Amino acid sequence: MNNILILDTSIASDNKGDDIIMECTRKELAPLLERSFERTLPTQVSPFHWYQVWRNSEAVRQFSNCKYKFVGGSNLLIPNLLTHFPQWNINLFNYQPMKGCILVGVGAGAGAEGKMSWYTKYIYQRLLNRDYYHSARDERSKQYMERLGLKAINTGCVTMWMLTPDFCAKIPTIKADKVVLTLTASHNPMNLEKDQTILDILLRNYKEVFFWPQGARDYDYFYKLKNTKPVQILQASKQAYDDYLTNNDTDYVGTRLHGGVYAMRHGRRAIIIAIDERARAIDAQNHINCIDYDALEGLEPKITSEFETKVVMDFIAIRQWKSQFEEYNKSL
pTM here? Predict the structure, then answer.
């Protein structure tokens, strides 16, 4: 039985959105994983100490010799790996056992259009697989990978690969009586005002409002708002959110991108409030019913209107990326 390495972006993460990404990554890779032994390493914390790599221990060799090494989603690619805490915690001394990684719906973070440091380019070019096409979350991430001399396909975010036209057509078009809200903790007073506006709109338009704290600081942040007493709080776990979405006829409204996508995966009407380049880039490419954070005057009309969910995905590109591994599947 071959080993397949999954580089897990949810380990040590303070964002449950990474749990959603990894669940979806494993579902899309299921044909490969079902008949292989899955090994797992973290991305957010260092997987090896330098002396383990230097000694080339048996454990290091086992991870090094995996048939495939997949990296699941998230904003991993950055212009400077010498930042104080990169999301992908790799360096000159620990990257070798992970050489040959294949990216699955990975995105480039803020500033990726700018100049890449020589050190960052050196690590990525030696770490990432040059034989297989990488799956990029959006066009700017694809261009970043190509600047590294890699082959890449714009497949969209892996969390959205199941959102086919037939599936989206079953998502309700009119407002539900319940809504689940997510917010993104911020120290900016202006954001607090905007989030108060969002909450007030939901309390006016829904009979029941729930709040899911997707990030580690979101719960405490939520209680900085006024009029929170009517809101019911969900447990801060992916399972609790999954259970809620499965068992309730609900809308989703919030600033958390993957909270909204996960709602759509459960057949729920979602309005995602775009606060950063990720949501804006994905909405421009995939049309995920976004309202910009700076245009909240459009939120209430959107909630009360009837609208369809028409996510646009390049399923030919997704099949092209997956087809690289068909021969391996046939050989098992």
Answer: 0.94
